[in-house]
Amino acid sequence: MRRVLAAILMLAVAALDAAADDGRRAPAAAEGHGPDAHHGMTADGMAAKGMSRGQLLDGLLARLHMAGDDREAMVVAKSIRGLWARPGSPSAALLMQQASKALKGGDALTALRILDLAARRWPKVAEIHNRRAIVHYMAGDLNDALKALDEALALEPRHFEALALKGAILQEMKRYREAMEAYEQALLIYPRLPPAKQALRELHLKMDQDI
């Protein structure tokens, strides 16, 4: 079970670098030269068609739900992470990147202070609250992590990584039925999300054994 939880956490932490990485790849894809250009699955490629941010997100989430294979789903999910990591305010994005660097450097306290500041200034940015939850979880503060996740999901109910992390936390707290519900909600949005699929299988097996 711990391997599943660790996999979900690593998936969540991967989102911390999505903006920078997605930004480096976007120009090639937008010009039709990148590996994803054929599918038109990057946020920047869709933006080139004159779509608003909301339309971009709706389109990407629809593509994610209908992805034909794991690779396609991963490409689309990466574009979604990049879009979430760029909330429209360069200052908010910069603070999230600074928090990411602090967390990778082992300074969770500084990361949390930065994210708390960002949350006060931009309280309606779901990704900021999601990242606060990640830091709380890594610090072992499960209740605070759940609170931050609920804030993120109130703003963006389709945040599949927030749902998956919520499932992991509830699973660790032995609140298995609630964990199953969170994983199921994540899979409704991202049906090919590997850690959530594995965790849900394990929980179903456990529940069957406990009957």
Question: Would you kindly provide a written description of the structure presented here, covering whatever features stand out?
Answer:
The structure is a single chain. This protein has one domain: Alpha Horseshoe (Serine Threonine Protein Phosphatase 5, Tetratricopeptide repeat), CATH 1.25.40. Helix content is 76%, strand content 0%. It contains twelve helices and no strands.
**CATH architecture descriptor text:** Alpha Horseshoe
Oligomer classification: single chain
How many helix segments?
A: 12
Helix content: over 70%
CATH class: Mainly Alpha
Rounded radius of gyration (Å):
17 Å
For the record, the count of structural domains works out to: 1
CATH superfamily (homologous) name: Tetratricopeptide repeat domain
Helix and strand sequence: HHHHHHHHHHHH
CATH fold name, please?
Answer: Serine Threonine Protein Phosphatase 5, Tetratricopeptide repeat
